[in-house]
Design a protein that fits this description.
This protein has about 250 residues and is α+β, with helices and mostly antiparallel strands. It has eight helices and seven strands, in the order H-H-H-E-E-H-E-E-H-H-H-E-E-E-H. It has helices spanning about 10-25, 30-40, 45-55, 70-100, 140-150, 155-160, 175-185, 230-250; strands at about 60, 65-70, 105-110, 115-120, 190-195, 200-210, 215-225. The strands form two sheets. Strands 4-3-7-6-5 form a five-stranded antiparallel sheet. The two termini are about 40 Å apart.
């Protein structure tokens, strides 16, 4: 078999990647001529590629003519780190899903919002219909309430001042004082439950997790007829939450 049987490679993409690697090797920046020399590219080709990379935000041109990595590439690096962290804990979520026959969810409190980071479900364990985003339904979900329970008073007040407690079902708590009272008096603490407050026919239970100083929550959703099993499920959630926290705390 000849070389033509191998993968089809795009030369211009390879050249751009080599340029990015060369730019990244110079903390204080490097001029186009030096980058062209280091990558073995014709100077005109290097200029054209650098101009494109600057336009798209992957490279930034300094006032002295040097080139450094741009903000977009830094954002990709941050995203890649988050993906690597999630890949560490995804097996634990999948094991929890299989053990409890329920979809598993992971959320984090980031930039003042409660956001879903991962959902591990399956054909026999479908996720709940997220008809209202978690950023607008933290008060009505076990996952959101678990996060709110872990926040200090100032952070709670700030969150509640910025979010309307929408009436999603007849069982949704829409009074901030009542919500806070229930969080502080949660009978399954540190677990928090959602008893058809987000969606009728569905109950959820969640416990806190941490990624460094960032609080999050790990939980599962269940058909309402499994309500009586919530204490048992809480017991199984806690050790998994500890494993997730340890996995998220490892340095990449």
């Amino acid at each position: 078999m000849g070389a033509r049987d191998g993968p089809t490679l795009i030369t211009s993409v390879q050249r751009a990647m080599r340029l990015l690697e060369a730019v990244g090797a110079h903390e204080n920046g490097a001029p186009a001529k030096q980058l062209a020399r280091e990558t073995g590219l014709p100077l005109a080709t290097a200029y054209h590629l650098l101009r494109t990379l600057v336009h798209d935000g992957y490279v930034r041109k300094l006032d002295d003519g040097g080139f450094v990595l741009g903000d977009k590439l830094q954002a990709l690096r941050t995203t890649g780190r988050a993906q690597a962290l999630l890949s560490r804990v995804r097996p634990a979520l999948a094991a929890l899903r299989d053990e409890l026959a329920a979809p598993a969810y992971l959320t984090f409190f980031e930039e003042g919002e409660i956001r879903v980071a991962e959902i591990v479900d399956g054909p026999g364990t479908p996720r709940v219909d997220l008809w209202v985003g978690f950023e607008d339904a933290g008060h009505a979900t076990a996952l959101g309430k678990s996060v709110l329970r872990e926040l200090d008073d100032e952070a709670r007040r700030d969150y509640l001042s910025r979010h309307h407690l929408a009436d999603l079902t007849p069982r949704t708590v829409t009074s901030p004082p009542e919500l806070l009272r229930r969080l502080d008096d949660a009978p399954l603490a540190p677990a928090v439950t959602d008893l058809e407050e987000y969606a009728l026919g569905t109950v959820c239970v969640a416990v806190p997790v941490y990624s460094g100083d960032t609080v999050g929550s790990l939980g599962v959703s269940l058909p309402a007829h499994r309500y009586s099993r919530l204490p048992e499920i809480r017991t199984r959630l806690l050790p998994t939450a500890n494993r997730v926290t340890r996995g998220l705390s490892l340095t990449i």
